[in-house]
Request: fold
Amino acid sequence: MSKHEEIDPAKKLADQFKKQGHFDKIKQDMLLGPIDNTDSTPLQDFIKTRVSAVVQTMVKDDESLIFKNRGSTSALIEGQLLKDGYRKLDTDTISVDARIRKIFEQPQLTTQLKETLVRELDTSEDYEFSTDN
Amino acid sequence: MSGYYGKTYYPPHSRSSRGYSSHGRRNEKRYNGHGSGSGAARRKSYARGDHYLADEHRYSNTYVSSVEKMQPNLIRPSPELRYASDNFKEKFHYFDPIKKVLIHKDDMRSWVSDKLPSTGYVIVQDMTTGRSRPIMKQRHPEQKATDPRSKDNVVAFQTTRKLRSCLVQVPRIAYDVHSVGPPPPNEVVVYPLVRDQSNSIQDSVIKGYFSGFGEISHFESFNDPNSALPLYVYLIRFTGPQGILDAPYRSVYKAVKAHETKSCFISGFKFAVVANKNGHVNKIINKLVDENAKQALTIKKELERQQKKNSVQTGPPAPKKIPKDLEKVVNGRYCLYVPRKFVSIHGLKTEDFKVKLAKYKWSRVLDHFSGIYIVFNEKTDAYACHAMESEKLVLLSRRKHSSLKIRFQIIEGTNQPGAIFDKDSKNATKKQYNTKDEIVDAAIDYILNDLKDALDRDIRRRLIGPAVFDALNPHNYPEIVSKREEEEKKKLDLKKAAEIRLKQESNTSSFDIFNLYGAGFANKKNSRKVTLKRKRNDESVFEDGNSARDLHVKRSHASAAMKPMAHLLNEESISREQTPFIDSAKDSDLELSSSSEENDEYEETADFTDHADQNKLKSESSEVTTPELETEKFILSNARTEELLKIPEKYRPKISPQPATIFPEEPFDLCQDKKLSILDLQTAIKDDEDMHILNKLVNFDTKEIPEKPVTNIDYYMWKLNKESQRRNEVLASQEQINEAGFDNILKSVSGCFKADGFRRIPDSIKASYLPHRRKLHQPLNTVLHHQDGPETTSEMHREDSEKTEFDNHTPEATSSRVNRAMNRRFQQDIEAQKAIIGSESELLTLNQLTKRKKPVTFARSAIHNWGLYALEPIAAKEMIIEYVGEILRQPVAEMREKRYLKSGIGSSYLFRVDENTVIDATKKGGIARFINHCCDPSCTAKIIRVGGGKRIVIYALRDIAANEELTYDYKFERETDDEERLPCLCGAPNCKGFLN
Reply:
């Protein structure tokens, strides 16, 4: 066990949470689940379609892109797309960065997290609390 | 003036001699009549008898006379002559002042002669000729002399003498037996003008340097008596050969003179060289010793001062404290400290210390505003580092370009070693949470942060990356790709067209690939005609032996196997008169497709019987079509491809440099013999078409009756078969030897050469079978390489050798130069080794010529017996090989030659170097001896000097291809006796026929 976990029980708890698989599950939900109540396309698909659309326009602008080394070209394009919080992927109505932020701001996320963590705490006996108060 | 003459300038005896010269006729001899008054005064002093005395004596005389006056009764003592010795008298004295007689009166002669006027003479300047010229004039004593300089009109005449602004040194006067006075110094003192303390010089160097001025008899170097360090002061005494007295002084003079204006630099020292006069050495030594002592004193003082300073600094050991803000980091460990002042002055960085102290176990190097702290985990490490490096570690100042010694200050740690980690963990106290909620909130914070990162990463790596990669897949853009492909295709076509055009330009006439399609389109009729003509010829094979033979000859030209397209550009067209490939191809093509409708045309074209006509037709067709060609034409239309594909594969048109027959040619095609064996006939029938024709022929042939009816048909057939077999064998062997069958003329008429008797074979025929005649300017492939297969022809050799020769020309030259430089270096190394070993060892004698040798080998020669062959192309003027052998004197060589002749060694391997040296390579020698004579040689033998000896070296006269035989002109003397003459077999066009 690393030093940090020994020092900080909260960290330990977080790690435990990850080890149980909850972390990945939440992440997956974020990517796959519909972001908004209004919009049905999940984030993942949205990004994918946007990426291919952007790349297509790029290729239209410069046809030689597809005849170059695919690996390095895609890396360069990727770099462009990642700039400024995925601004290139944004459409008129939807901003990827804003969406991600919104997901994190959802209150149900924290409540959901809290629930699982409390459950976790209860099941394990490793956590001790100072009983000064 | 009289005072000047009389008193100070002349020494007493010379004064007397002057007196002598003017004695008697004193006045006459005075130039310009001066000094008569002084002469009178002098006479008086002579009369007084004191003129032999030195000045003080004279003064004392005056004193005496004054005493006389005071005491008149005292008698004046008679004068005493000081230098009254006989020796002096004889040499210098002429007057006895006591007796008042001339001493040598009898010996003296009057100077009066006829030449000189009796009254004496004066020299006057004569200006009559324009230039002043001294002339002698009789003196008239009654005339008053005048000073010519006092005249106004004296013209300062031109003089060639230069104005001297300073004193000029008297030329050195050689010291010899006659020299008076002490000898000049024979020692020089060499002492340093500028001394570099860090440098040192060996005595032998000085000695060696000065031995250049003369023979050294004594060499002494001086040391400082205080420190026993060399002063670099040298005393060198010169000596010389026994007979020459002047030699050492001359050496000293030379040595001093050489360094008078420029000082003497010997290995970094600047020396002054002076002659050792009056113990000059000691003065110099004392001066230097004093200087050294002073210097030592100042250094000592400086040291003391520093020590004092150190003791002041270190004395009260102000224990440096770790600054507050570093306490946490240093954590009570031991540190070495370098003050900021020092660090900033020299612009030192932490990296410098890190690098320099890499071998110590420091844990951190901290750069703080108060200085640099090197933190050690262990106390022992810190102390070890301090002991080893303080005031010893040398760093290069970044500001001052000088090396510095770093002084470290140790700062004692407060903790015991090993306690550090405990404290570390103690410091980071375990976080305590009071409630569950707190812990959960903290955990949520962690998780959310992590989640953000993870999500971001996922989007980047898992979503966008692969998506972009997939999106870039060319399959997603079929229209772009197809467009691109089309473009590429176009480009390729253009390129092809350009290639073809290029090729066509290179060999326009030999072969027209465009006839494949173009001629087919444009001149179908023409080609048809040709075809039919050809067919007719084929038929006539069986009717008429002669025409059949013609055809065979014609076909044999088109023998070469098909070659790939790429080779076409390199190929040279060999023959223009053969039937183009298109004919045969088109032939079958058209025959199959439209044989019936051509019957009428058959008649039309039947009148073409001649090959020349046929060729004309063909070339016409090609000429018409080729200029019109455009790129589009080369792309076969689909319809055309299909049409082509319809043709059976055998007959399909092919691209080849030369037209080729569909079936490979049979040996009997090439043979000029008219007889065909049954076997040949059988193999000649290839397919149904042939059979059909044969049938037709046989049917027609029934009328023909042979003159001599064959009685035994079986035997006749067998015989024919045998003959053809043998013929094939012979042909094969000739092929193997000569790469072509022999000319028919060479065939024996009677079947046996011996029975034929003598007949002359013309040179043109010889060229067909003598290899060196056949390829006079091509290398013979007599050298067998392991890698070469038996099928490699000399043709190929020639080609690639020519190519390599062409390409490698320049690199060859440069590389050979580099090689030679390398060899020179190597040789120098060897020489150095030799010098170290000292003795004349045979082991290390290096033949530098072997290094420059070209790869050559010997093989059987077309000229004579063995020959030498180049394995690689050799550029002109390159050295090829040295002619190595025993070096003999002329008589020995003559004897050997006779002995060799006697013992049956016919070949001469004796090479004359000069009139009394011959190199014999008969028994011991290199392969250069195999080089044959040629009247048109490729090489030349040169006699060059290498390290004092004459060597024979073979150089290339012209560029030589690989596998070419090397030859040079033997340059034998012309033999008058015809029987003695050696025939030359070199085969060169300008061959003289004889070697000598």
Q: What stands out?
A: Chain B touches chain A through 44 residues (CB under 8 Å). The first strand of chain B starts at residue 95 and ends at 96. DSSP finds 35 helices and 25 strands in chain B.
